[in-house]
Amino acid sequence: MSGSPVTTTLWRPTGPVELDLVRQSGWRAWPPRLPEQPIFYPVLNEDYAVRIARDWNVKHDGAGFVTRFEVESEFVARYPARQAGGETILELWVPAEELDEFNAHIVGEIQVVHEFR
User: Model's pTM, two decimal places?
Assistant: First the structure.
């Protein structure tokens, strides 16, 4: 008997350009990183994602969005959580060259859960 995979919920603060590329993927994948972006950084809690989208993306891009998505837990375990500040400021560091494989392990659609302008 085969059930649904066990998943881990991740969040990603993003600006309008990246969000449009996610929309173009059918809400199924993150776009390739730009040359100056060697790492893809999904975060481990919604509050941290909200702070980045609201306080950084709005200032730099005019709008900020928080997305939520599920990734197969067994796959995502290869990326240890990294503390990027305070105790709850946790993120994963996914090398850009591994993003296609990461995207292949997303379960379901990437969802927008907050919008800031």
Answer: 0.93
